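Go through this fold for my students:
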Amino acid sequence: MVVPLDESDASAFALGYALDHTSDADDIFLVHVTPKGDRAKHKGLFAQSLARCSSAKRKCQSVITSSATMGKAATGVGQAILDVAESKHADSIVIAAGGLSSVRGLWDGSVSQYLNKWAQCNVVVAKPKMYSDDTPADAILLSAGI
């Protein structure tokens, strides 16, 4: 499973959702996409997330990757996430709505939409109640792979 992270509360919610919906045997790859050449300053992002994984007795690994096309966020960030998912043979991607994309952006060309269109695995959008519109669920399965 791949869980893209940023500094938002929604991203932390997505990690919590992933931890709650995996078994001890599942590998979780925490991914942070940075602008090309800007990797070093983002290493601290994972400390708290890795601690949460450890507390939940889950195997988590951090992956910091760069995107040369950050100007086109949905394409650049989305493709970087897909590259990690493919290289790690992930069966699913759990992404936050509202952190890496807004709820409205979920349907308007956001990273979530890009992943939904191109992912070869399941894409789950974890949607905290604070970002929820009329959707009663905590997450929406956007695609079941191609």
About this structure: The longest helix spans residues 73-87. Helices lie at 9-20, 46-55, 73-87, 111-118. Confidence is low (pLDDT under 50) at residues 99-109. The longest strand covers residues 27-35.
